Amino acid sequence: MNPQRDRSIDLETVEIELLLEGVFRVYGYDFRNYAPASLKRRIWHTIRRENLTTISALQDKILHDSACLERFVLNLSINVTSMFRDPSFYLALRTHVVPLLRTYPFIRIWHAGCATGEEVYSMAILLQEENLYHRCRLYATDINEEVIKKAKTGIFPVQLMQEYTQNYLQAGGKRSFSEYYTAAYNSAIFRTSLKENMVFSQHNLVTDSSFNEFHVILCRNVLIYFNQELQAQVYQLFHESLINFGILGLGKPETLKFTAYEQKYQQLVATEKLYRRVS
Known about the structure:
CATH architecture of the largest domain: 3-Layer(aba) Sandwich
Protein name: Chemotaxis protein CheR
Number of domains: 2
Pfam family, one: CheR
Shape: globular
CATH superfamily of the largest domain: Vaccinia Virus protein VP39
Number of helices: 9
GO molecular function: S-adenosylmethionine-dependent methyltransferase activity
Order of helices and strands: HHHHHEHEHEHEEEEHEEE
CATH topology of the largest domain: Rossmann fold
Structural class: alpha/beta
Oligomer: single chain
Radius of gyration: 20 Å
């Protein structure tokens, strides 16, 4: 056993704990229960980008420089996303969820952890094609204010449209995907009509409470960054926010199995992690 090696590991753990505690106490962002491996990787990524060499130096800079804090939060909250990501998920929404939504006079859908908004616009397109969007309200939230601002614009890189078109078609798209956007200056600007029923807002799944009652909550590939304690906290938030028989959609790596909420849902489409609240 190498005592110096053990000491360095312990120091790194202590430094991370102090950093996260400081961020929580000063700014109110609570990352203390994020999955350790992913968290450590993103912290060191931020250290390199800030031209620093230690976690303690990053803590000092963050606590005295709110701009550095914003960059840190952005780095910790970035999720990979795309339009109609996992096309089979959207096909399952069309096939199994849309018929349920038709039974409601008005529909509230929450995209929790929406990042830059690609999946919100995907949902709007799907609902327009199913003639449901006019009686829907899409609430899109994220912890990071910068990505919310970007999501509001409805502007995405035009070079991604070929990939998104393939996703759209595999997801059961009924029109030409190019009808939904205008290409200009290397950007794809999506139709204003898609944003009519969207509400974008900053919301922290860790520290903020329920803000409405929803028919559908989608939170895909966000909980993988949380430890079990924090996941349980978020599942409680979702359960409190869903109407009875409401739909919860998770990412492929995520599951309600072995949680306190497993018996409160039935699997609607097991392969796509779509659940229906039953109690």
